[in-house]
Design goal:
- It is a single chain.
- The chain is 20% helix and 32% strand.
- The chain contains two helices and four strands, in the order αβαβββ.
- Strands 1-4-3-2 form a four-stranded mixed beta sheet, covered by helices on one side.
- Strand 2 and strand 3 form a beta hairpin.
Length: 84
């Protein structure tokens, strides 16, 4: 899995209090993969805490995990379109 990005530093008590609860407990961040099971197993082996087990949905394979601050993320491999 290849990812890049950064997190901004908090400024002030209001922002500090919101860390980990920016979305009120909902998933609002997503990591898209081309091989769900490879990345799920790799993340799990590295200690990532999954809060919802992997499941197949109409839109693809997905599992929810929490980051170090409690933000909830989806690890998702989109369903492949079937040619007509």
């Amino acid at each position: 899995m290849k990812c890049s990005g950064f997190l901004a530093r908090t400024v002030g008590e209001v922002q500090i209090a919101a860390v980990g609860n920016q979305a009120g407990g909902r998933v609002f961040l997503f990591v898209q993969t081309d091989d769900f099971w490879r990345d799920f197993k790799s993340m799990e082996a590295k200690g990532v805490r999954f809060t919802r087990a992997p499941r197949q949905e109409s839109y693809g394979m997905v599992a929810v995990f929490a980051d170090l601050y409690g933000n909830r993320w989806d690890l998702i491999e989109p369903a492949r379109a079937i040619p007509a």
